[in-house]
C-alpha cells in the first residue's frame, strides 16, 4: 500500500525506518521529511498545515494510509478535514480528530477531563485575565515551587516553574497578557509533584488499546538535568522503575479511565496517546497528555516493537486492534541526541556532518538535517538521534556514546549522562 507520513523530525525518521520494513508497503512518502527519511521513501515538500495540497497529493498518489507525526495538524483538525471530504473520508488517517487532540491542545480541558474521570493528576485551577486576583489568592495557598501552564500549544515552552511567589505572580500576569500569544489566554496553576518522570504510550482504535514500550526522556540541556528545557536530549526504554506492579497501576488508574472517558465524551479517538507521567512514592500521576508519539522517545520505542507497523496501523483503522498483538523486543534501546552548539538558544544551521559512514552498531535517526549537494548538513537545534540496542539501557548507551564521539560537525554537543538517574 502507498503510505503518507506527515512530519520531519527524529520521530518521523524512526517511523519511516519501521514502515520501510513492512512487506505491505508499496511506496512511502514523507511530507516534508528530512535527510534521514529520504533513505526510506520520497520526501515531498508540502507544509504539514496545508490540508488542501495534502488532499491533492493523497488523491494523485493513491495514498491508502496517512500517519500524522506531530500534534499541530491534529489540533488544527486534519482528521476532521479528511472525514468531511467525500473523496478523502474512506482513506484511513492515524491521529485523533480535533475533539480528541484537545487533550494536548488545551491543558485546561485535559485537567477537566482527568478530574471528571478520576484520573490521578496534580490539583489545579485555571485562570483568565478577569480572574487574575483569584489566581494570586490560589498561588498564596500553594507551597513553592509553583507550576504555571499556558493552556494552548506553545512549542513545549508553555510550562514555567518558579520558586518565588512574587515572581510567579508577575509571570502569571505576563502570561495572561499574551506572553505566549493566544496560548496563554488561560493559565493552569497546579500543585508541584516530585518524582521521576516517564512516558507511556498506547495506540487505540477508539474501542481497544495496546500498550507500547515505555520510555524516559531527558529534557534539560545540561548534565544532571540542569539548564534550559529542550525538545529532548536522549531517551531510554525500558524504564527500570516501571515494573509490573507500577504498570498495572498505570493501566487501571490512567489508561482504562482515559479510554472510557473518551468514549463517554463521544470522542472517537484513533491514534496514539502519550501519557506524560510522574511516579510519586510509587504512585503514577499524569503530568500531561500528548496526542502523538514523543520525540526522542519514539527513537527508542519504535525500535523495540517487533510486530509489523502497517499491520498495527490497519488494525487501528479497521477498529480491530483487539485482534492485533504487539510483540516487544526484550533488548533495551537508548538514544543520544546530537545538537547544534548554542541550542536551545541561537544556533547556526548548515554545518557539514562528517563520519556518518563510520557509524557502527547504532541506528541513526535524523532530526534536523538536510541534503546539500553531496553533503548532509545540520538544519535544526536537534540534529541526529543515535539509537543503540543492548542487554541493558546502559550497554546501549555506551554504543551510542561511541558513535556520538565519531560523528562530527562544528559546534556538536551531546549529554554524556543520559540514564544517570536510573542506575
Ligand atoms: P509539559 O510541557 O507539560 O511536558 O511540562 C514540562 C515539564 O514541566 C514536565 O516534563 C515536568 O518536568 C514539569 N512539570 C509539569 N507539571 C509539573 C508538576 N505538576 N509538578 C512537577 N513538575 C511538573
Ligand atoms: N519528549 C517529549 C515530547 O515529545 O513532548
Write the layout of secondary structure elements.
Blueprint: E1 2-7, H1 10-19, E2 27-32, E3 42-43, H2 51-60, E4 65-68, H3 72-75, H4 78-84, E5 93-94, H5 98-105, H6 107-116, E6 124-127, H7 132-141, E7 146-150, E8 159-162, H8 165-179, E9 187-190, E10 196-204, E11 209-211, E12 216-217, E13 220-222, E14 226-229, E15 234-237, H9 244-264, E16 271-280, E17 283-290, H10 298-301, H11 309-317, E18 332-339, E19 363-366, E20 369-372, E21 375-378, E22 382-390, H12 393-406
Parallel strand pairs: 1-2, 1-4, 2-3, 4-5
Antiparallel strand pairs: 6-9, 7-8, 7-9, 10-11, 10-16, 12-15, 13-14, 15-18, 16-17, 18-22, 19-22, 20-21
Helix pairs in contact: 5-6, 7-8
The structure holds adenosine monophosphate and glycine.
Gist of the model:
The protein has helices spanning 10-19, 51-60, 72-75, 78-84, 98-105, 107-116, 132-141, 165-179, 244-264, 298-301, 309-317, 393-406; strands spanning 2-7, 27-32, 42-43, 65-68, 93-94, 124-127, 146-150, 159-162, 187-190, 196-204, 209-211, 216-217, 220-222, 226-229, 234-237, 271-280, 283-290, 332-339, 363-366, 369-372, 375-378, 382-390. By secondary structure, it is of the alpha+beta class.
Amino acid at each position: 500500500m502507498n503510505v503518507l507520513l506527515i512530519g520531519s523530525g527524529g520521530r518521523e525518521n524512526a517511523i519511516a525506518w519501521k514502515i520501510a520494513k513492512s512487506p505491505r508497503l508499496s511506496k512511502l512518502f514523507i511530507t516534508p521529511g528530512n535527510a534521514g527519511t529520504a533513505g526510506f521513501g520520497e520526501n515531498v515538500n508540502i507544509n504539514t498545515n496545508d490540508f488542501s495540497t495534502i488532499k491533492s497529493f493523497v488523491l494523485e498518489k493513491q495514498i491508502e494510509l496517512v500517519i500524522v507525526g506531530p500534534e499541530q495538524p491534529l489540533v488544527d483538525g486534519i482528521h476532521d478535514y479528511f472525514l468531511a471530504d467525500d473523496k478523502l473520508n474512506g482513506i484511513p488517517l492515524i491521529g485523533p480528530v480535533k475533539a480528541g487532540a484537545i487533550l494536548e491542545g488545551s491543558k485546561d480541558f485535559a485537567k477537566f477531563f482527568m478530574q471528571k474521570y478520576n484520573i490521578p493528576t496534580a490539583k489545579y485551577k485555571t485562570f483568565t485575565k478577569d480572574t487574575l486576583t483569584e489566581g494570586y489568592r490560589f498561588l498564596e495557598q500553594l507551597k513553592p515551587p509553583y507550576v504555571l501552564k499556558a493552556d494552548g500549544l506553545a512549542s513545549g515552552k508553555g510550562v514555567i516553574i518558579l520558586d518565588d511567589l512574587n515572581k510567579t505572580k508577575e509571570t502569571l500576569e505576563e502570561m495572561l497578557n499574551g506572553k505566549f500569544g493566544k496560548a496563554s489566554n488561560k493559565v493552569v496553576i497546579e500543585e508541584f509533584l516530585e518524582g521521576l518522570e516517564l512516558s507511556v504510550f498506547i495506540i487505540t482504535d477508539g474501542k481497544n488499546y495496546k500498550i507500547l514500550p515505555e520510555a524516559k526522556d531527558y529534557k534539560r540541556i545540561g548534565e544532571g538535568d540542569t539548564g534550559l528545557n529542550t525538545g529532548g536530549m536522549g531517551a531510554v526504554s525500558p524504564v527500570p522503575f516501571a515494573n509490573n506492579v507500577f504498570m498495572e497501576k498505570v493501566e487501571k488508574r490512567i489508561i482504562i479511565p482515559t479510554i472510557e472517558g473518551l468514549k463517554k465524551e463521544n470522542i472517537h479517538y484513533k491514534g496514539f496517546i502519550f501519557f506524560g507521567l510522574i511516579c510519586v512514592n510509587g504512585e503514577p500521576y499524569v503530568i500531561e497528555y500528548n496526542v502523538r508519539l514523543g520525540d526522542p522517545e519514539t527513537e527508542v520505542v519504535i525500535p523495540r516493537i517487533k510486530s509489523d507497523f502497517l499491520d498495527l496501523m490497519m488494525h487501528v483503522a479497521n477498529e480491530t486492534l483487539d485482534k492485533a498483538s504487539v510483540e516487544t523486543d526484550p533488548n533495551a534501546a537508548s538514544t543520544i541526541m546530537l545538537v547544534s552548539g548554542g541550542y536551545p538558544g541561537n544556533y547556526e544551521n548548515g554545518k557539514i556532518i562528517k563520519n556518518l559512514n563510520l557509524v557502527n552498531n547504532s541506528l541513526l535517526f535524523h532530526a534536523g538535517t538536510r541534503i546539500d549537494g553531496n553533503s548532509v548538513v545540520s538544519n535544526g537545534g536537534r540534529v541526529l538521534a543515535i539509537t543503540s540496542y543492548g542487554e541493558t539501557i546502559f550497554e546501549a548507551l555506551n554504543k551510542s556514546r561511541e558513535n556520538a564521539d565519531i560523528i562530527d560537525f562544528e559546534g556538536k554537543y551531546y549529554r554524556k549522562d543520559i540514564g544517570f538517574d536510573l542506575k
